[in-house]
Each structure stands twice: as structure tokens, then as C-alpha cells.
Amino acid sequence: MPRFSRDLRAPSRIIPYASHNRCDAGLHRVLLRYDAPSGKVSRATLLATFLMMTTATFSQAHAETMNGALAKAYAGNPTLNVQRASLRATDENVPQALAGYRPTVNASASASVARTQTRYPGSRATETLYPSSFGIQIDQNIFDGNRTRSSVRAAEAQVLGGREQLRNTEQTVLLDGAVAYMNVLRDTAVLNLQRNNVEVLVEQLRQTEDRFGVGEVTRTDVAQAEASLANSRADETVAEANLRTSIATYNQMIGETPRKLGPGTSAERHLPKTLEDAIRVGLAEHPAIIAALHGVDVAEFQVKVVESELYPQLGVSAGVTREFDSSYTRDRVVTSGVVQAQLRVPIYEGGLVYSKTRAAKEQAGQQRLQVDVTRDQVQQAVVSAWANLEASKQRISAAQSAVKANEIALAGTREEAKVGQRTTLDVLNAQQVLLSSRVSLVTAQRDRIVASYEVLQAIGRLSAEMLSLKVARYDASTHFDQVKGKWVGTSTPDGR
């Protein structure tokens, strides 16, 4: 007996940053945000510390927040709306199954013309009749081997499983929305870094040409500076293309083009304290596992539906018919009524039902195995996401140290180049290493926020309720309650 079906009515803040510098400037942190008035990507501005904090506060107050973007995805994402519509269609399986308890009523009517010609010796007679009739019949199932009862419970389990599938789709959409949001922030910062690097290399090329003009460096140094600038401009083009792609994905997931995005918000405060707790929560709460368990219920009830074909069937029918036989000579009206009970006892049907029953049992076994597969997948996803989160934390620490060290190295290389102890190529290489470490830091901070949402999704808790999104919640039970008891009507609850 299925045991999982239930009542159908029961329905750390991380701030990434981008970095910019001139030839004589150190690393300044600014909030990583996307600001695109008129649809263009603006460059981040280096401010003094007190001005930066004031600007960041003002900017966040007027910018789109991560939770605001996710709320828009929850309310209007097409993929999510498709799944909601699919669940509403699944709700209709319950009233369809309940129809087995209800009577069926059929009316019938007929009209015809009958012409009769009779020959007698020396004469003949012709008679034209206009027979017609109408009637009504009611059929009521009394016992169908519990087929209807099992069908209703299977339909209810399908609805419960559909709700969990919807919850899983909500998780996927919210995660994709978070990834799209952070990708725009990351690619904006990378583009700003690449643009700043171009400006730095332009200045470096100018200084190298000036030194070449007075004989301090050779033509080789100038060529190296030119090559480095050309590569940097190519990298800027790639970064701009990546940002455009991320903006398009954001528009697909959130439903609008980003204008001003505030800093990303980590979901780490919603996570269990340890990996073991995360695995335990995932195995107990993940909607994919719960949906698979409801799938087992559906399969087991389907076994009973098929087996019901081997049991006796008992029904009652009643009908009333009125027949008219009219002609120009006489009229006749016959009214008849009948009430009868029908008992059907299957004896042997060629082995078809026995085979269908065995197949249904194998399918139920398959669904039970699928639950184990899903549990393994959830556990693997939790472990993988948790590992990515821990690794991203370590990458942030390493990248911060690398940025600091590479800043010192670049400054030292420049000073040594002034006295002839370093070449122009050494300076250019040091500049590229610093740029790479800054990009790595921005990417690691993006990865940490994304990984926190991946863990929350892997344990089955990535939802509008958990994130406290300011958006009207979609209540799947509302539509079900509206249709489950309907006997007639083709209009949907929303009037279609």
C-alpha cells in the first residue's frame, strides 16, 4: 500500500569588487555593480574611501537588488509559467477520475418517414407513417473492482508529484536568475578592468616612445609595448562580447534588460552549518526526491487499476422511451421504461489483463529504483556544490594575496626599469599578471555567491519563501480546489 500520499490541501553578504589603476595608482576597491543608463556600460570611477562608501550607499538605494531581480523571475519567467500551466492540467486528472463515481446520462431522439403500399384484388392501399421517438437513459456504476477509487488516488498522487516538480522548476529558475545576475556583474567588472588596462598600456606605450626618442630604450621595447596594447584591445573586445551575452541571458531569465544592478548577496546565511547537515536536509526535503516518491505511489495505484479488470463489475441503468407512430388514419403513442442491474464477471480474456498487471508491477519497481537514483544524484549535487563553495572561499583569499603581491611587484618593476635594471617587457608582463589576478579575484567572488545558491538549490531550499522575495506566492492548491469538485462546465477558473 502506498504510504507517501498526503492531503492535497496542505500546500552572509559578500560584496565583489572591480579594480582599476593608472600607472601611478594603487588598487582601489569599488563595489561591483552594473550601471547602464541608455543601455551602455559605464566605467567604474575610482573614488576616495569616504566618497566611495557614500556613493555605494546611494547607488544601492536606487539600483536593482538581487532579490528584486529574482522576484521578477519568480513572477514572470516563461519556463516557470509553462510548468505552472502543466500542473493546472494535471489537476484535472482528479475530477476525470472522480467521474467514475458519478452517473452518466444520455438522451436520444429519432424521426423518420415510412411509406407502406398494400395491394388487394382490384385495389391497393397506401399508408404513410411518421414514426419518431425520444428517450433518456441513466447508468450508474455500483462496483468496478475499486478501479475508480484507485484511479482517484493515483490522480491525487500525480498532483502532489506535479507540485514537487513545480517546486524543483522554481529552484532551477531562481538559480539561473542568480547566475545571470552575477554574470552581468562579473563581466561588467572584467570589461572595466580590460578598458583600464588599455588606458594603462596606452600610457606605457607613450612613455616608451618618449624614452626611445631620447635613446633610453630600443625599437624592440616600442614594438613590445605596441603588441601588448593590441592584445589588450582584443581582450577588451572579447570582454564586451561576454557582457553582451550575459545581458541577453539576464533578459531571458529576469524578463528585462539590466540597467543598474546592486551588489550580489550570498545565500550562505540560509545554509546548514556542515556538509553532513546539508546532505541530511537534501535527502529529506529535495523536491526531486519527493516527486519520485509520489511517482512510486502513482505506479502502485496503477497496478490496482489494471487488476480491477479481473474483478466483477456491477452497475445499474434506467431509461424511459416514448415512441410515436403517426399517420393520416391513426396515431399511436407508446411509453416504456426499464430499470436493470448488470453484473459482469470476467472468466478469461486471453491473458491480456494478467500481462498488463505484471507490466504495471515492473513499472512500479522501476519507480522505486528511480527514487534511489534520485537520492544519489541529490547527494552528489550537495557534495559538489559544497566543495565549490569552500573552494571559492579559498580562491578569494588566494586572489586577494596575489593582487596585493602583484601590485608591489609591478611598482618595483617600474622603478627598476627607470634605472635600467628591468626591461619594458618586464613591466608589461608584470602589468598583465596584475590584471589577471584582479580578474581572478572578481571571478572568485562571483563564484562564491553563485556556489551558495547552488548549495541552497541542491538541498531543496531555494525558494521565494526562503529568500524572502517580495512577490505574491503562487499557490498551486488554489486551482486544484477550484476544479476538483466541478461536475459541469468547460471554462477554466480564470475564465478561458
TrEMBL record:
Keywords: Cell outer membrane, Membrane, Transmembrane, Transmembrane beta strand, Transport. It comes from the Bacteria. One of its GO terms (molecular function) is efflux transmembrane transporter activity. InterPro entries: OMP_efflux, T1SS_OMP_TolC, TolC-like. The keyword RNA-binding does not apply. The keyword Magnesium does not apply. Its main location: membrane. It holds the Pfam family OEP. It is found in: Cell outer membrane. GO terms for cellular component: cell outer membrane; efflux pump complex. This is Outer membrane protein. It comes from Pseudochelatococcus contaminans.
